[in-house]
Amino acid sequence: MGRAGCYATGPRDWESLRPGQLHRHRRTTDDLRMAWHEIRSRQFWRAMFSELLGTLVLVSVVLGASVPGPGEAPVGPLYPAVAVGVAIVALAHCFGEMSGAQVNPALTLALLATRRLDVLRALVYIAAQCLGACLGAGALYLALPLKTTAEHFVNKVPMQLNAAQALGVEVLCTFQMVFTVFSVEEQRRRENPEPGNLAIGFAHSAGVLLGARFSGGSMNPARSLGPAIVAGFWENHWVYWFGPVIGAILAGVSHDFFFARSASRQKLVACLSCKDIEIVETASMTGSSLSTVTQNAMRAKQGSKQDNN
Q1: Which CATH superfamily is 41-260 part of?
Q2: Of the four, 54, 178, 204, 218, which is 20 to 30 A from 96 by CA?
């Protein structure tokens, strides 16, 4: 995962720069050069389109499982819970090697907050996820014989609850899901090459089963955005952005800086001060641990080697 930013600017007079300012100015130039190189790469656009297509499939599958057929009674949480779990497992196998099959802006922001993803990719992924969700919701809306989209499409706060209670449920559901994603990723890289997609799928299903009756169990801002645009229903929509994002960031930060085997105070300080995590982690890990070297650190090393050659 890439290092998230801290782009610095400085005066244009290079001779007047202090050593620290000169270092930041050079780092900014290197970051911009790497960002431009990344945008021009085929892998970057494959990853972007995989997020778009993956979110399109996820949203259409979940919504399709949530809408009753003609003459049927409203479905319970079991159908969408099974649908989202199966879809996540399938998408992880399809797009995991391209973009990680994040298909969720909340998860993407958690990866950004823990510096596993750089700013450029995070912004592009979120835009692709939201567009894919809108396309998926729109396609299913056109295919349905009944157009009661606001009743079955949109995540809504029940009459018996208020927005704050629904927000808390979304935070809880998303926390357990994202914490599972981070834990599976750590275990996969350390011990087992199997990506653990079943555990991630089960975590999504558990979140829907827990939250469906209280908030809709969205855990995914894009999943709520697409249907809201199609149905034109925006009441308490903010709950389905703030809740998942807060839960996801809390899960990612608590895992990486407290529960992970490589967690340390130095790692947290390095992240907050925008230093390379690689140096701190390597010094604090045991022989069985795996260093999470950031993509930008690796690219910087490769670039310096090329310059020296």
Answers
A1: Glycerol uptake facilitator protein. (1.20.1080.10)
A2: 218
Residue 200: Cβ within 10 Å count: 22
Q: 54: number of CA atoms within 13 Å, CB side?
A: 31
Closest C-alpha among 64, 67, 143, 114 to residue 248: 114
**For the segment 30-89, what is each residue's pLDDT rounded down to a tens digit?**
666 776 677 778 888 999 999 999 999 999 999 999 888 777 777 888 999 999 999 999
Q: Is 152 left (phi over 0), alpha (psi -120 to 50) or beta?
A: alpha
Q: Give the helix ranges, DSSP H, for the chain.
A: 19-39, 42-66, 78-95, 105-113, 119-143, 149-152, 163-190, 197-211, 221-231, 239-254, 265-272, 277-284, 295-308
Give backbone dihedrals phi and psi of 108, rounded to 5 degrees, phi first.
-60, -40
Indicate the DSSP class of residue 257: I
pTM of the complete model: 0.78
- Which residues contact residue 148 at a Cβ distance below 8 angstroms, ignoring those fewer than 6 apart? none
Q: How far apart are CA 137 and CA 149, in angstroms?
A: 10
Round to whole Å and give the CA distance between 156 and 275.
Answer: 42
Residue 147 · residue 73 · CB < 8 Å: no
151-169: pLDDT as tens digits: 777 898 988 899 999 999 9
Q: Are 61 and 83 in contact (CB under 8 A)?
A: yes
Task: Report the distance separating Cα 307 and Cα 89, nearest Å.
Answer: 42
- Supply the pLDDT for residue 47: 92
Asked if 248 and 107 count as a contact pair (C-beta separation under 8 A), the reply is yes
Among candidate residues 267, 270, 261, 257, the one with its CA nearest the CA of residue 290: 261
pLDDT of 275 above 80? no
Distance in angstroms (rounded) separating the CA atoms of residues 291 and 186: 10
Give the start-to-end residue ranges of the domains of the chain.
41-260
